[in-house]
Structure to design on (278 residues):
């Protein structure tokens, strides 16, 4: 049996929806019948839908755990030409944070909760338990692959898979097109300045310092970067009472040094709190 096919069957048995990948790490293109969705559209996340093509068509949507499909003659022809295995993280209830550079890996180690990590050619995959929408380019060298996306299977990696944290979910949130205006430029922190109940003071200080650095190093999309950074800080510390006006002032100062107005800082902070239900 083809080694890739054998591995794919084992992964499917473990609950991971798989698909063959061609040279170049991409999925096989649609067959002539399915080209340009002439078949009526691609299947949904459960591999059921208007298209019943037996070939591994429609990229991520073709991923399946059904051994009869994976080992079928139509798929066998693809496996014979395949160079790798892809899988649909969202279909298995997973999210992959794809770190595509050493700088991105360094950022993740300083900013994200530890979880299972898989080495890649240029960086690492950080795998969390929980699904979300997929977004590319959430920051330099960082993509999120979960629902309606595929990731390349590169092994089980090391470490325990931990729950998908709010700080990763926050990376995929776009600032509302219409901002909610607040009457005052000065906005207070979400809860008055107590000691963090679930993190050490050093953890909070490092988080604020990393947030300042992220804003300061933004070379484009400063407006969006400021909002996402505020969202990440609030998701980690906004409910525990550890943020103070001093912490906010540091973040606002960093944003204003990049050209953001005090009004925008206040709006971005208020919008982040609203997005998190605070």
């Amino acid at each position: 049996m083809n080694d890739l096919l054998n591995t794919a069957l084992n992964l499917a048995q473990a609950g991971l929806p798989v698909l063959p990948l061609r040279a170049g790490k991409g999925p096989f293109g649609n067959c002539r019948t399915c080209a340009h969705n002439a078949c009526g559209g691609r299947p949904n996340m459960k591999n059921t839908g208007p298209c019943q093509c037996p070939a591994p068509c429609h990229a991520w949507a073709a991923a399946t755990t059904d051994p009869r499909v994976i080992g079928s003659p139509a798929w066998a022809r693809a496996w014979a030409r395949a160079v790798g295995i892809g899988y649909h993280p969202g279909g298995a209830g997973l999210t992959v944070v794809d770190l595509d550079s050493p700088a991105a890996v360094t950022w993740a180690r300083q900013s994200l909760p530890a979880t299972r990590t898989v080495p890649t050619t240029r960086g690492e995959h950080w795998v969390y338990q929980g699904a979300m929408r997929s977004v590319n380019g959430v920051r330099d060298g960082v993509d999120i692959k979960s629902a309606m996306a595929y990731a390349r299977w590169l092994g089980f990696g090391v470490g325990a898979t931990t729950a998908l944290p709010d700080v990763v979910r926050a990376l995929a949130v776009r600032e509302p097109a219409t901002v909610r205006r607040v009457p005052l430029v000065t906005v207070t922190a979400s809860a008055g300045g107590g000691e963090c109940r679930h993190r050490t003071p050093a953890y909070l200080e490092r988080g604020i310092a990393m947030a300042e650095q992220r804003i300061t190093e933004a070379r484009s999309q400063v407006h969006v970067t400021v909002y996402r950074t505020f969202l990440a800080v609030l998701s980690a510390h906004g409910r525990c009472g550890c943020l103070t006006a001093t912490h906010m002032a540091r973040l606002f100062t960093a944003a204003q040094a990049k050209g953001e107005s005090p009004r925008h800082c206040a709006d971005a902070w208020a919008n982040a709190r609203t997005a998190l239900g605070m």
Q: What stands out?
A: The two ends are 55 Å apart (CA to CA).
